[in-house]
Amino acid sequence: MILVLVLCFCVINSKQAIAANISGDLLKQPAKEITVSLGNSTNELKFEPNKLEFLAGKRYTLHLTNPSQLKHYFTAKDFADGIWTQKVEAGKVEIKGAIHELELKPGAEAEWVFVPLKSGKYALHCTIPGHTEAGMTGEIAVNN
Predict the structure, then answer these.
(1) Is the per-residue pLDDT at 25 higher than 80?
(2) Is the pLDDT of residue 86 over 50?
(3) What is the residue-wise DSSP string for 16-41?
(4) Residue 70 and residue 80: Cα distance in Å, rounded?
(5) Closest C-alpha among 98, 91, 101 to residue 38
(6) 114, 26 in Cβ contact below 8 A?
(7) Considering only CA atoms, which of 34, 48, 38 is closest in space to residue 108?
(8) Which of 37, 59, 116, 120 minimizes the number of CB atoms within 10 Å of its CB?
(9) Distance (Å, whole) CA 69 – CA 9
């Protein structure tokens, strides 16, 4: 039982150390900026670009825009589970914590600042019925 408690304590402390390194060193680095449009002005159901690449351990600012007249979602749960989100900012609201999906209404913009931690390939899609089927999909790759 004591061994289990010691192991739990070590795991918790190592996660805190990782978070401290992220918040200290990485926040001093400028974030690489990438813009993604959810749809376009002619209401095509697509992400532009639909292939995104990130490097694990680097800081990014993802600018999401919705120039269409339809509501869209930026949904990539497995990707979101493998990143550290510094913040999401939309309008005059800043959100912190675990984010799995962002909804952008027509004309909306949001900014997602994060650090990818886990390499892999992740699916991106819009969860509005019919949008994924119509081609509103993409791929996110995180490389080491």
Answers:
(1) no
(2) yes
(3) HHHHHHHHHHGGGSPPEEEEEEES-T
(4) 24
(5) 101
(6) no
(7) 38
(8) 120
(9) 51
Q: Which two tokens stand for residue 70?
A: 């339809």
- Name the token pair of 97: 């914590």
If you ran DSSP here, which 8-state letter would residue 67 be given? -
pLDDT per residue as tens digits for the range 91-113:
889 999 889 999 999 999 999 99
49: cis peptide before it, omega within 30°? yes
At 43-64, the pLDDT tens digits run 999 999 999 999 999 999 999 9
What is the Cα gyration radius of the chain? 17
b/e per residue 7-31 (b: at least 16 CB within 10 A):
eeeeeeeeeeeeeeebeeeeeeeeb
Q: Give per-residue burial for 124-137: e unless 16+ CB within 10 Å, then b.
A: bbbebeebbeeebb
Which amino acid does the sequence have at 33?
Answer: E
